[in-house]
Amino acid sequence: MTLINHLNWRYATKRMTGEQVPQEKIDYILEATRLSASSMGLQPYTVLVVEDKELRTQIQKVAYNQPQIVEASHLLIFAAWDKVTEADVDAYMQNIAEVRQIPVESLADFKGSLMGSVVNRTQEQQYEWAARQTYIALGTALAAAAEQGVDATPMEGFAPDALDELLNLKEKGLRSVTLMPIGYRNTEADFLATAKKVRREKEQLFVKLA
Questions:
Q1: Rounded average pLDDT over 172-188
Q2: In what residue span(s) does the Nitroreductase domain sit (predicted)?
């Protein structure tokens, strides 16, 4: 199957069966998420992986009792960094230097660019930038799940402040942005399971500029 086939197959699953997704498929989805595009490669977010059913039951209460939270096999929580510091940039520079086997000093211009375009913003501007990066990772995770024949649902329908408090995310320097339950569709309970995918026609969506 091609990527287009997989994307036609996937939809925002409303009901899941509770069946466990094999660990190798979970690992594949997580690795694809790790390799996702990110502005300047910084990846200013953390992806929390929740398998524990009891914890997901607690999370469901701050997610408007949506059933996917507990019917899924796993729940991914995409949480943006609350702020981006010079220490974060230094750690990133060090990682680049080690992976590429180059002197960290050779990255001075790149560090300066990051400092000027991100670190020198207000903390709220930093968070908003980081939060937008999580959506890039979310999109990659959704496509990877579809490729593996695993259902996944992008969800903003939850109370972020309540979830942050439940998981003590503030103390970790994180703020929850979006959720992604992973599992298998319940074709008997989900009214969308057999519905045709509806998207705008390409002539409407894409505009060619002269």
A1: 98
A2: 8-184
